[in-house]
Design goal:
The protein has 441 residues and is an all-alpha fold. It contains 21 helices and no strands. 44% of the residues are buried.
Length: 441
């Protein structure tokens, strides 16, 4: 009976691995975990230098994947945002959607920060860890400065606000300043909507072609995703080791619990406010969520998220092509939650009391830092240093988190992408369809 049932399951598993991206990514992650344990310090089978050489070669597909995405992500975001805004049909509807989406992103980020404070003060993960033993197990010099201090001053806020508007859009494109690119795209979109259709049509056709070209390049890059997941997981586990992961288990568990609660908030929004079935909707999300987990980059997943929203969830292009690119830049709920937990964890570890005023300052700083955070792997750990400075926590404490940051980066990126897709479902109910769309149907 067992053999017969196994034989009946085998064709289904083979089909999933051959046809489904999420299944391929899962297999890549699992095989990478096994190889990482084999190459890791616990087994002692492979020398550290040799292990590093092997994982460097295995990481080539991952670096190629991310490079290809980075190569085309700016023109994709620029074209997608403008086309999404043009699909709204009018300046009035554009204004309504823009303000509503911005408010929604801020509110959900505040909720994420609240969840982070709650789980960090309830579980108290810093009390479970001996900082000296963790530093020794990771072979890190406690006096070494691994992250450059990032100073944050509220007096600089007006200058930062003015700096968002690009004086030279080409410079913003070349340096990858995503907020400035989005602002420029907003100006172009509003100008195109205000022009007669005959004058704006050539530009809109060009943007459509740019979007199609970039999506084609992304489809080629997606073939590398399972190999990228395999190489990244093998590299992480082989360098960090299972002992270090267990040593920081309380901290990691607190972050994961907080992120899980945030996902429950999204599920409530999907069911109550978007009026969508939970199980089938989560199944539709699995491809972008697993890809987010394996790449740790919201920007890398953005094309897949747009495709999933439009083709599987039947979200209007006016919504998906505006909300998802914007969300990939400013909707970082998972990152904000992680930063709050990390600050509390280090404060507890170094026996630093955080008062109410300090907690509010940390929350505001985390909110502002998460908006416009680079949607690339490892960006959160650099931004965290500015929040630690605001809280009065030694920035050198970040060295304790570097070993496990990539794994938590994978998890919080998955929550960030889930938030973008949830926002699409919510606003799809509230945005009227474009007249062109209704005429075509």
């Amino acid at each position: 009976m067992v053999i017969q049932s196994f034989k009946s399951i085998t064709p289904q598993v083979t089909y999933l691995i051959k046809k489904k991206l999420w299944a391929q990514v899962l297999v890549g992650l699992f095989l990478g975990l096994l190889l990482g344990v084999f190459l890791g310090p616990e087994t002692g089978i492979v020398e550290k230098d040799t292990s590093g050489i092997i994982t460097t070669w295995l990481s080539i597909p991952a670096h190629l994947f991310l490079k290809i995405i980075q190569m085309i992500i700016i023109p994709l975001i620029f074209a997608s945002i403008i086309r999404g805004l043009l699909s709204s049909g009018s300046v009035e509807q554009l204004r309504t959607m823009g303000i509503s989406v911005a408010i929604y992103f801020i509110v959900t980020t505040v909720i994420a920060l609240g969840i982070g404070v709650f789980v960090a003060t309830t579980i108290m993960p810093g009390n479970f860890v001996d900082s000296e033993s963790i530093l020794a197990s990771l072979e890190i010099d406690g006096t070494e400065q691994l992250v450059e201090n990032v100073e944050f001053n509220f007096l600089d806020i007006p200058e930062h606000i003015i700096g968002i508007i690009p004086s030279n859009p080409l410079t913003s494109f070349m340096s990858g300043e995503m907020l400035s690119i989005i602002i420029f795209a907003l100006f172009v979109a509003v100008a195109l909507i205000s022009l007669p259709e005959k004058k704006s049509e050539p530009i809109t056709d060009l943007l459509e072609s740019v979007q199609e070209i970039t999506m084609k390049v992304v489809s080629w890059a997606m073939r590398l995703a399972p190999f990228a997941a395999f190489g990244l997981m093998a590299d992480i586990v082989s360098k960090v080791g299972l002992d270090a992961l267990v040593g920081l288990g309380a901290y990691m568990g607190t972050v994961v619990i907080g992120l899980f609660i945030m996902m429950l908030v999204y599920i409530i929004i999907i069911k109550v406010f978007a009026n969508r079935p939970i199980i089938s909707t989560l199944k539709m999300m699995k491809d972008p969520l697993l890809l987010a987990f394996s790449t740790s980059s919201s920007a890398a997943v953005m094309p897949v998220s747009i495709k999933t929203a439009e083709e599987k969830m039947k979200v209007k292009p006016a919504v998906s092509q505006f909300v998802i690119p914007l969300g990939a830049t400013i909707n970082m709920n998972g990152t904000a939650l992680y930063q709050i937990v990390a600050v509390f964890f280090l404060a507890q570890l170094f026996s630093i009391e955080l008062g109410t005023t300090t907690i509010i300052l940390i929350a505001v700083t985390a909110l502002m830092a998460s908006i416009g955070a680079p949607s690339a792997p490892g960006a959160g750990i650099v931004i965290l240093s500015s929040i630690l400075l605001a809280a009065g926590v030694p920035v050198i404490g970040i060295v304790l988190l570097l070993g496990v940051d990539r794994i938590l980066d994978m998890t919080r990126t998955m929550v960030n992408v889930g938030g973008d897709l949830t926002a699409c479902l919510l606003f799809d109910k509230r945005i009227k369809p474009d007249k062109k769309d209704t005429d075509e149907t």
